[in-house]
Design a protein that fits this description.
The chain is an alpha/beta fold. It is 57% helix and 13% strand. It contains 17 helices and 9 strands. Strands 1-9-8-7-6-5-2-3-4 form a 9-stranded mixed beta sheet. Strand 5, helix 4 and strand 6 form a beta-alpha-beta unit. The longest helix has 19 residues.
Length: 332
């Protein structure tokens, strides 16, 4: 059983007298900054000149500076900007200010693992990766709880990289739920694989295929949407709460039997072989190279795929039906 770390395993006093520079103020950046600030940590948000987030961060009561200024003035620098822009920002505005003894941190291992960022050997390099979107992370924190997180150490020059990482994890609330120690390699490869095969790519492809199958068979698109998209949240909530066993306990025996007998017909060994190929592309770096090249070339394929998927019939049907669901507006 993997070891999990909690509140008593982290010493927040290690952050006393230190300034943490959070580079970026998007989903993760705002959550890390505000959670640390609420825990009494000195935070400065680093943003590019003209960023729309400057006014927002200042309105949230945070100190803001340009990226280079935040890197210069901080003892701990947390990189929370998109993977595809991080290397350039690092080289231009962060690396020149990485004095010996500082700590460079990440919430995802992409740039370290694929070596688009190679830090000097005079600084600690670590990762604290909350396992939730930033807005969810912030919401849970304000209610007195936290989301699980991962901790990884890439370079431990000071001999205290683990302890400082744990203090940071406590500062953002992850030790309230539990922190699992991992490596940059494992976090990066499992994260990309999970996104591509299940959490994003696998789920959306499965939903679209099921929707199309029903509509092509003559069923109403609205019925297909309710069955293949809308009800998915109900099942995911059960899985989240108690795993597969609890979900199967909660549904009808008919649904449970269909799960056992028909699920493997849809997700068969061929799907697993495809997943292995996806994993190989993550492991050998070919996906990373493809994504970096896609951005360097102006995102032609990405933009085309985004447009095609936005125009899929399930989106127009869903938008109309969701407009009738007042409870979704109440949730917002």
């Amino acid at each position: 059983m993997a070891k999990m770390y909690y509140e008593d395993d982290a010493d927040m006093s290690l952050l006393e007298g230190k300034t943490i520079g959070v580079i970026g103020y998007g989903s993760q950046g705002h959550a890390h900054s505000l959670n640390l600030h609420d825990n009494g940590v000195d935070v400065v948000v680093g943003l590019y000149e003209g960023s729309k987030s400057i006014q927002k961060a200042e309105g949230d009561g945070l100190r803001v500076g340009l990226v280079a200024e935040a890197a210069r003035d901080s003892d701990i620098i947390m990189m929370l900007i998109p993977d595809h822009t991080m290397s350039q920002v690092y080289q231009e505005s962060v690396e020149p200010h990485l004095a010996a003894g500082k700590t460079l941190m990440f919430a995802h291992g992409f740039n370290i693992h694929y070596k688009t960022i190679v830090p000097p050997d005079t600084v600690d390099v670590s990762m604290v990766a909350p396992k939730a979107p930033g807005h969810r992370m912030r919401e849970v924190f304000t209610k007195g709880s936290g989301v699980p997180g991962l901790l990884a150490i890439h370079q431990d020059v000071s001999g205290r990289a683990h302890d400082i990482g744990m203090a940071y994890a406590r500062g953002v609330g992850c030790t309230r739920a539990g922190v699992l120690e991992t490596t940059f390699e494992e976090e990066t490869e499992t994260d990309l694989f999970g996104e591509q095969t299940v959490l994003c790519g696998g789920v959306t492809a499965l939903i679209k295929a099921a929707f199309e199958t029903l509509v092509e068979a003559g069923y109403q698109p609205e019925s297909a949407y309710f069955e293949c998209m809308h009800e998915l949240k109900l099942i995911v909530d059960l899985l989240y709460q108690g795993g597969m066993e609890y979900m199967r306990y909660s549904v009808s025996d008919t649904a449970e039997y269909g799960d056992y007998s028909r699920g493997p017909v849809v997700i068969d060994e061929r799907v697993k072989e495809n997943m292995k190929r996806v994993l190989e592309a993550v492991q050998d770096g070919s996906f990373a190279r493809e994504w970096i090249a896609e951005n360097d070339e102006g995102r032609p394929r990405f933009n085309r795929l985004r447009k095609e998927n936005a125009e899929h019939p399930i989106e127009s049907v869903g938008k109309e039906l969701r407009g009738m669901m007042s409870f979704l507006k109440d949730a917002d």
